[in-house]
Amino acid sequence: MSAGLLGSDVPLADRYDLALVDLDGVAYRGHEPIEHASEGLTAARTRGMRLVFVTNNASREPGSVAEQLSGLDIPTRAEEVMTAAQAAAALLRTRLEPGARVLVVGGAGLVTAVHDAGFVIVESADDEPEAVAQGFAPELGWAQLAEAAYAVERGAWHVASNLDLSLPTARGFAPGNGSLVGAVRAATGVEPDSAGKPSPTMYRLAIDRAGASAPLVIGDRLDTDLAGARAGGYPGLHVLTGVSTARDAVLAEPHLRPHYVGEDLRSLLEAHPLPTRSADGWWTCGDSAARVDDGALRLDVRGTATVDTVRAAASAAWASADEGRPVDPASVPDLPVGTH
């Protein structure tokens, strides 16, 4: 698949049969709705697009996630939610037989997923677990992290639900599971395996479960959602309602680049024009154009910046970088597109 943007002359909801939708920063923000999320997803469903919500959060049960989404006018069933806890349990099954002992360091969602996969859950390293499954839970403390470290030191396989260093909350960014996993890694020197994004494991599981033939990944974070799309070979839509900004997309390295960019989830209902390159090096999309001169990004925008501006700027910057002429980040302005 191309390392650049893709174009679509029909709405994405008509081109793809399954949307793999991230949660925080895409469908909601903390406990608050994101503007146009319900509108965009409801209309996409009306067009025949199926939805599976794919989250690196391993602390919550799928039913709890579905209940929250339904309360935000996004009707969802538990089977339409794929969590990193479920992915971690699936990863454990690749090496361990049912009945193996697993030390679970995490919330109820991880406990349920590991139990449902057929493993025996233990709480102490002295129970000689064959693996440690670690996921985020706000109640985790030193004692649980210490048990994980003791078990890993003794040879237990360390499986992390995800490696997100930060976690968005209503008050800002707090330490995520990756930060807590880092404490165990620092104590043991052992690098864990991860089931969560940017690993494409969850995407593959969700696609197989849905029987989809044309999936589309939707996320707000380049380093998890869109990196996972690239790693799995799936097209990815970057919506500008969460963590990664339009400027981040323009400066993205190849393995982090989205295939489509949209202001919010209404972009599922829109065609996505592909920027074109002229002989003099300008990349044009709609009323915006961009080129790179001596490592500096130049923009020609009629009126205010739009998603087309982001598309043109990304195409110019990515092409220049791929040709061995990386763009000076200082020349890339903040592009006030999307809500954060």
Automatic annotation (TrEMBL):
Species in which this protein is naturally found: Cellulosimicrobium composti
Protein name: HAD-IIA family hydrolase
Alphabetic keyword roster: Hydrolase
Superkingdom of source: Bacteria
Coiled-coil ranges per UniProt: none
UniProt-annotated stretches for the region Disordered: 318-340
GO MF entries: hydrolase activity
InterPro entries the record matches: HAD-like_sf, HAD-SF_hydro_IIA, HAD_sf
